[in-house]
Design goal:
- The protein is of the alpha/beta class.
- The protein contains eight helices and 13 strands.
- 40% of the residues lie in helices and 21% in strands.
- A hairpin with a 2-residue loop joins strand 4 and strand 5.
- Helix 2 runs parallel beside helix 3.
- The structure holds calcium ion (CA).
- Calcium ion binds next to strand 4.
Length: 226
């Protein structure tokens, strides 16, 4: 039974969401504060999070960024305003999907199902030779488990999540580092370098992480498909 975390401060909305998801066979834990949800996420064991944008103890976008520093759990936003949607659609903050209030509970349940299916749910998804187990924060390459540092894992998981999408160094910093101001820009390059060495040790003839001069890095999903 997939476990969903709902962070929403309005009881009426939360009730509807909990009912809709539990009817579909999900187990839902409801929290009204961002910090309560965050604490629960740190414990692990959750399959997906539904976040309200406006929370009593902060902004859902900031919360999402914080979550992304340690977890790649799929995130769906409940949002009210169209300008918020633009930011989510741009995926600047690392969300997987959104629904606009007022929404149909059935639609939300359908989105949850679709994302869990896409992100693997129980079975880990395989992309271009990579297999990501987001719940346990581990990645296999060509069937071999990669021994990664926390930052290497977060960078690789970020790139793998959006094949062919170019991430600038600033974006990687912003989404991977909890306090980007404390790190040097070059840190991204350093981690990419060690990451590549680890991938090359497994398969020498492929370069899944591509450098785009002056732009950033991308994961080339097609490389190991052949
Ligand atoms: Ca709210």
């Amino acid at each position: 039974m997939p476990r969903i975390l709902l962070i929403e401060d309005e009881a009426a909305i939360a009730d509807t969401v909990v009912y809709a998801l539990e009817t579909e066979g999900f187990r839902v834990t409801w929290k009204t504060l961002g910090r309560e949800g965050l604490a629960l996420l740190r414990e692990g064991g959750l399959d997906l999070a539904v976040l309200d944008v406006g929370l009593p103890d902060g902004n859902g976008f900031e919360l999402c960024k914080q979550i992304r520093t340690f977890s790649q759990i799929p995130i769906i936003f409940l949002t009210a305003r169209s300008e918020e949607i633009d930011r989510i659609v741009g995926l600047e903050i690392g969300a997987d999907d959104y629904v606009t209030k007022p929404f149909s509970p059935r639609e939300l349940a359908a989105r949850v199902k679709a994302i869990l299916k896409r992100s693997g749910g129980v079975a880990a998804p395989v992309v271009g030779g990579f297999e990501i187990d987001r719940e346990r924060s581990l990645i296999r390459y060509q069937g071999q488990r990669l021994d990664l540092t926390r930052y290497e894992y977060l960078i690789l998981a970020l790139l793998l999540g959006r094949p062919e999408r170019i991430f600038s160094r600033e974006e990687i910093m912003d989404r991977v580092w909890s306090d980007p101001a404390e790190s040097f820009d070059r840190a991204v390059d350093t981690h990419i370098k060690t990451l590549r060495a680890k991938l090359r040790a497994i398969r020498e003839d492929e370069e899944p992480i591509r450098t785009h001069r002056g732009m950033g890095y991308s994961f080339s999903g097609a490389v190991s498909e052949a």
